[in-house]
Amino acid sequence: MADDLAGIKRPQRWDVPFWSETSEAEASLAAPDVDRLLRLPAFEKMDAARFPAHAPLRDILLNDGRVRRYRAGEIIVRQGDYGNSAFIIIRGAARVVLHPATGNRESGGTSRPGFLPALLRWWRNPSLPEVRQFTARSPGANVETAHVGGPAIFVQDMDLIVKDQRTALLGAGELFGEIAALSRTARVTTVYAGEESELLEIRWQGLREIRQHAPEFKQHLDRKYRENSLNSHLRETRMFRHLDDATLARVASATEFLTFGDFEWYAAFSKTKESSGQERLQKEPVVAREGNYPNGVYLIRSGFARLSETYNHGDRTVSYLGRGQIYGFEEIATNWRDQTDRPFQRTLRALGYVDVLFVPTAVLEALVLPTLPAEEFPRAAARPNGPAWARGADQRGLPPEMLEFLVDRRFINGTAAMIIDMDRCTRCDDCVRACAATHNNNPRFLRHGPIQDGFMIANACLHCQDPVCMIGCPTGAIHRESVHGQVVINDRTCIGCSTCANSCPYDNIQMVTARNPEGRPFLDAATHQPIQKAAKCDLCANQPTGPACAHACPHDALVRADMQDVDRLADFLHHR
Amino acid sequence: MTFTSRRNLAGLTCAAAAGLALLADFALRLRLRRADLVSGGALLAVVFLLTLFNARKKLPFLPLWRAATWMQFHIYAGLFSGVLFGLHSGWRWPQGGFTSLLAALFLAVFGSGVAGLILTRWLPARLTEHGENVIFERIPALRAAVRREVEALVLESIPRLQSSTLADFYEQKLLPYFTQTRFLWFQVAGIHRPTQRLLADAHALDRYLNPEERSLLARILEHIQARENLDYQQARQGLLKAWLFVHIPLTFALILFACVHAFLAWRLS
Questions:
Q1: B159 at A interface, C-beta within 8 A
Q2: How confident is the model at residue A45 (pLDDT cuts 50, 70, 90)?
Q3: DSSP assignment, residue A464?
Q4: Measured at the alpha carbon of residue A52, what is the angle toward residues A49 and A58, in degrees to the nearest 5?
Q5: Tens digit of pLDDT for each residue in A443-497?
Q6: How far is A317 from chain B (nearest CA, A)?
Q7: Can you give the pLDDT at residue B263?
Q8: Rounded CA separation A102/A162 (Å)
Q9: What residues of chain B lie within 8 A of the CB of A553, using their CB?
Q10: Which of A272, A550, A288 is nearest to A432 (CA)?
Q11: What is the distance between the terminal CA atoms of chain B, rounded to a whole angstrom?
Q12: Is B61 in contact with A122 (Cβ distance < 8 A)?
């Protein structure tokens, strides 16, 4: 029977080396010369014997690395893009744009395909589900390939464009881009080639393994991570903008890095999904408690935090904080200005996990508040007058019950959550059909999910701000699209291990059986088990319309909402 | 823009267009021009435009404005077509057999469209507030599962409880309830009597039950409630889909007949 089915070799981690994910012309040059790389300062002192047999250092560099060449002025990474790799300069130099930061606009962007390509793609849709066209006995040889990294962008007179901005020069041997790669966040700076340069680009999976098995590299990365992340974060924070470099450095030296909760929070979250709101709240680590002395401000660096206030015998959620938001500043600033001693007005709890920067009150009082412009002082630090139940809604415009629902179920992690107004939705399934039409006849979401106040959060990928599904992927198949940050799966490099599907706290990734054009499942030639691929919503990253589901809804019932854009979210919830 | 303000704006625009059409028709008639040809041509054009919405829905990947924009156009242009039809027919029922058929077709399409509009605005909120929202295509499977679960509960209880009260109730009342589909029509009409009668019968059993059986009956009642919700969802969701099976085929018939009518009018004028 197995002979009737399409037998292929089960995909493995390094079937598609990183260097092969460049254009054909570049691929031959991108394959790394491992012996040469091992002589680089970053690797020459590493003890190769520390690496496990399944992931030796040589293989990591060979398969998770690629060599890229840049002309002077060519952009290597752009601020705001999402990075899945870090860079080590082999030869030449790179220039980092420090301050004020450059946006994406001057450094190019991507465009969506036009009318005809979309029509052609639809015309070629197979009639059967989950059809793949593996052309050889290797599942890596898919017809449609994705070039991770994309074409380089050359900007004429880059030096002239950034002449008013502070830049720093990085020389041979230096590493950059590791923060975005390891923390699944956007690049915080733009880096371009200062001269003709040759760089080693390492996929974050490889970087993670080197960090794990080479202690000296880990120390180096952690030190750099601390320095770079801290400086860039403080510079982005409103209350520190007026400070000169020397004062900011003093603030930085007094700043503490704190982490609350578990980085891999999704496992614990899955177990507590059915618990009551109060039970869940009790398990969330407290960062700072209402009524305590305000000992400093907390700047959210990554992750999420719940802001709650005491309400009779329980706690009532009043807001949620994400990256870049601040807790405690109002109390400290008004206490200093008005000579009062108000305690913290609300409790801050880690939702899953949260990384914070803690700046002590004494530092703020000595270095920040005396020179803070008057307009930067908060208007009031006290809780709004009247009991919480009488206010009806939180300060950000979401109904209280909806807020509790979004926070308890961690939907606040979403940057493109599918919200359906069930009072308008006629269950016509035009959204599902549109999704199928744009994904080879395979709908990539389920119009089903929890409902609150008549709004459903459907089982569609949320494109999380903190995509925990990416953490365990051994090949980097699930990654962020570089420009807009959608979480997408490279079908070519997915080995069907299900790690991402098991990690997704919202059950929004499905494992599907790959089939040939006749509809027969591909089987592993050795074990005769079906070849599986992870599948999920890609937010129609390659469609001219944007998300086809929202575009196809005739009743304005469906939106893809960024949970951090609370104003827009509130608009949608109140628009009936 | 809120839905209310959008509705007001579109309604005003539609009313203004209708007013202009009335004025133009009046002016043409004053000048002894063939106003019926103008209104007929405009009506045919609007009907074609309205039909394009269905084609647009088949091509969701093309950047041809959002479906919601098309829907708004469809609603208000559809209402406007009623005014054009009135002008074209002179607000009288036509005399010929063919034109009567054409008029009947138009009114059926127009009426089914208005009925669909009312249903799509009225039913969704009722579906949302009535029990668990389920996907239409999964309802038969879920209904079968409910029946299987109740059957298993009852069968398992017979040897254990040494009592046939619940088994008799299952055989005489529950099984017909679970196997009948005619109750869907009651749901369409908003009548819940079959379920209410069944629940009353179930509660009447109380005097014959011991505590263990009562707890089993409570679980069976939950299943009846689930089944009732499935029937409700299927009936109402079915209604939301069924009206299109009237509206769309009639539209194609209307277009065909209207084209013949236009050709004849052109040849004879």
A1: no
A2: confident
A3: B
A4: 65
A5: 999 999 999 999 999 999 999 988 889 888 888 889 888 777 889 998 888 999 9
A6: 25
A7: 93
A8: 8
A9: 66-68
A10: A550
A11: 47
A12: yes
| Token pair of B26 as six digits | 């009046």
CA distances from B218 to B95, B100, B146, B201, B229 (A): 65, 59, 14, 13, 17
Distance in angstroms (rounded) separating the CA atoms of residues A426 and B269: 45
Sheet holding A455-457, edge to edge: A451-452, A455-457, A417-421, A558-561
Rg (CA), chain A: 25
Q: How far apart are CA A443 and CA A446, in angstroms?
A: 8
Identify the sign of the CA torsion B215, B216, B222, B228. negative
Q: Does B238 touch chain A (CB under 8 A)?
A: no
**Could B237 and A427 be called an inter-chain contact, meaning their C-beta atoms sit closer than 8 Å?**
yes
* Nearest alpha carbon to residue A355 among A408, A300, A310: A300
Quickly list DSSP for B219-259: HHHHHHHHHHHHHHHHHHHHHHHHHHHHHHHHHHHHHHHHH
A486 token code pair: 């959608």
* pLDDT value of position A92: 92
Which of A487, A488, A436 minimizes the C-alpha distance to A131? A436
Taking the C-alpha atoms of residue A278 and residue A315, their distance in angstroms, rounded to an integer, is 8
Tell me the C-alpha distance between A142 and A129, whole Å.
16
* 3-state secondary structure (DSSP) of residue A190: strand
Query: Which of the 8 DSSP states describes residue A169?
Result: E
**How do residues A132-151 score in pLDDT, each as one tens digit?**
877 554 444 443 333 444 55
SS (H, E, C) A499-524: HHHHHCCCCCCEEEECECCCCCEEEE
DSSP per-residue letters across A197-231: EEEEEEEHHHHHHHHHH-HHHHHHHHHHHHHHHHH
pLDDT at B221: 93
Q: Which residue has the tokens 């995509």?
A: A467
**For all residues of chain A together, what is the average pLDDT?**
83
**Closest-CA residue of chain A to B131:** A451
